[in-house]
Amino acid sequence: MSRCYLQLTLADRRRLHQLVERKVPVNEMARQLGRHRSTIYREIRRNTFHDRELPEYSGYFSTVANDIAKDRRQRLRKLRRHPQLRDLIVDKLQASWSPEQIAGRLWADGLSLVRICTETIYRFVYSKEDYGLGLYRYLPEARRKRRPRGSRKPRDNVFPEACKISQRPDFIHDRSQFGHWEGDLLIFQRDMGPANLTSLVERKSRYTVMIKNQSRHSQPIMDKIIRAFSPLPAFARQSFTFDRGTEFAGFRALEDGIGARSWFCDPSAPWQKGAVENTNKRIRRFMPGETDLTAVSQQVQSRNVTLSPHLLTWEIADGIDCDERA
Hints:
- The protein starts with 9 loop residues before the first helix and ends with a strand.
- The strands form two sheets. A five-stranded mixed sheet has the order 3-2-1-4-5, sandwiched between helices.
- The longest helix has 14 residues, at 62-75.
- It is α/β, with parallel strands linked by helices and 326 residues long.
- α1 packs across α4 (62-75), α2 crosses α3 (37-47) and α10 packs parallel to α11.
- The chain contains twelve helices and eight strands.
């Protein structure tokens, strides 16, 4: 018998109905279903149908028991029991807060006496009862359906074992040293053309650089990164961490061009470069997938880089001075 409790399924209840009809002892029912006898007692007591007017129709029926259990679980949902908390979450979602931000700030700021986790908010957004509100449109990815974790098929092993993220030094992992970056590619709808953005985040300072590309091929993307980072001193561009997308297959050009080492996440594990992934969610709020990048220009007005132990200034966008504390 498993030590991890699982809810009874409809198939379990159909088998239990047959055993109840045969008046099998509860201990034997529990043995055949692989459950504790208390689970069987509780299931029969809570989900037996009672009809006072027609008692001959009362009894334990699998489909009726399954509906009773589902209805009970829906009534016990936290956001159904606390409508004020539900309204607060809807307001925050519509104000472009992410579920992670909502769950964290509700607890940190004491906005609600009821604790709630991120997964509860996601389930609320995608539940059948509340899906009609269209709250998924306010999420960072704005997906109509939830995508299971690890659903993407892993790519062939085209990256060397020596570049795996597990081989990356600890001083990069703990963010104790400046000059180590995470990179990703932001793509847009096909009818908007092939233009895309390379987003790069420095792990220690969270300094962010976005580079506009006209192609998804690896070589031009790497050339743009080299051109943008070559003005920096060597200690400020020591390494880059990417996922295993084919757009980063030309990573060796970085080592040849600017002397930067490259590291790669495990297959289907882009969350291992969480800094740039979280940054991308913020960028998507202002540049969703239907953005026309042909109307967005990026002219490097100055390549003068001033780097001190406390301040990094880099003018790389349309006349915008990007200042971040290092």
